[in-house]
Request: fold
Amino acid sequence: MILLNNVIKNYEDFQLNISMEIPNGRISGLVGKNGAGKSTTIKLILGLIKPDSGNVSVFGTESSKLNSKEKEQIGVSLAESGFSSQLAISDIECILAKMYSNFDKEYFRKMCQELMLPKDKIIREFSTGMKAKLRVLVAMTHKAKLLIMDEPTAGLDVEARNEILDILRNYVAEDDDRTILITSHISSDLEGLCDDIYLIHEGKIVIHEDTDVILEQYGILKVNDAQYGNIDKSYILKSQKEPYGYACFTNEKKYYQENYPDIVIENGGIDELILMMTGGYR
Amino acid sequence: MAGLIEKDMRLLLRRKNTFVLFLALAVALGLTQKGTFILGYLPFLGMILTISTITYDEIDNGYRFLMTLPVDAKTYVKEKYLFCISGTFISWILAVVLYFISGQIRGEKIAIIDEIPIVASFLPAVILFMVIMIPIQLKFGAEKSRIVLFIIFGIITAISFLFVRVIGTEIINQIIVKINHMDETGIMLSGILFAILAAVLSYLISCKIMQNKEL
Reply:
């Protein structure tokens, strides 16, 4: 579905250098700190920017050469970008109806009611949550095979975030073949939604792992200096000096639980993954 | 393309108060002012209103989102030229109607056939201005394009001044006399042809600008 092959994109003070492959029917999460390269990756996939080298393809077509038929199969929600804030939902409904042959007017209207989005108010007067809901809804009302969501839950309260995540879950549940690529800062959103996670740091993919594996097998060993000297470090991905000794990030939590029962081992989540692998764990 | 036209129409309709105000002003001016003022005013207004949709597209990273919809850069540019030229053309038609009606009201004897070259010359003039503005706005955005336009017209003025200084006012006067003696229909047709060529060139430049734009 999406393929990035040895893609390099250079900016004055930043280089993105990644390879990714997202197959059909997969919900993939792209996580990383601000400025890690998440939005640049999304822009490359959408053909909004061109790589300096390497290939980016979607549905087997080079992303910058996607035709309108192929683009109809993609639904996009971008952070801080959408229809003009001078328009109202009633306008957007008519525009989408002319833009997409598969636009589902009934679904759009039903969802607007469910999400309490007013039809005739202009978007400029919407709250942050309403704008975010609308961006997600616009991406989903033409039965797209691929959804690309850049920070769809950023800046929202828990209730609004859960509403958006529920919409996405239902969207995938309707058709197993649908694929989603989602970026987010909020790990709990991704833990409950994504099949796999890509961690991007300083323009490179540093880890790609199934979400279940991260939650079940990754962990943080908290060891003192003596314990650190004695443990087998074969499965330690990264260690960090701490006041009590060392925090060691592992992808084989069970191995250490079985072989070193005295060691304190905390479960690893996506937050820990980001913090440990990007050097900011506390 | 249909979706983009729908978007631009709706953006214009969202400003219907401004639209109605300008239109009322145009009718009032058209009916009260003598001469050809309305023939320049109304098409220019139509051009400004339709070009303003580019500004709305640009605000809040709008281009980025628009290019994720089932349209490409070339279709976007094509729609924009079609929309702006159509808007200018419709407002020019309205201006022509007002011009003749006001003449009738004032009891002036207007020979429509004789007036055609003058009336028609306003449309290519406004379109020429429009096809200069569109690529500049696409390239530099609404804010910077004003400065760029100012610089461009400043350069044109400076070049014209130098041109006059170099070849002398006598030759310029001779050229003006020759133009005055030229057939009006010929001038009108040359103007239309020049505007068409400029529009094609401008469209091709705008396509390149949008295709190379990093969003």
Remarks:
- The mean pLDDT of chain A is 89.
- The longest strand of chain A covers residues 2-11.
- Chain A is about 35% helix and 30% strand.
- The CA atoms of residues 132 and 152 of chain A lie 6 Å apart.
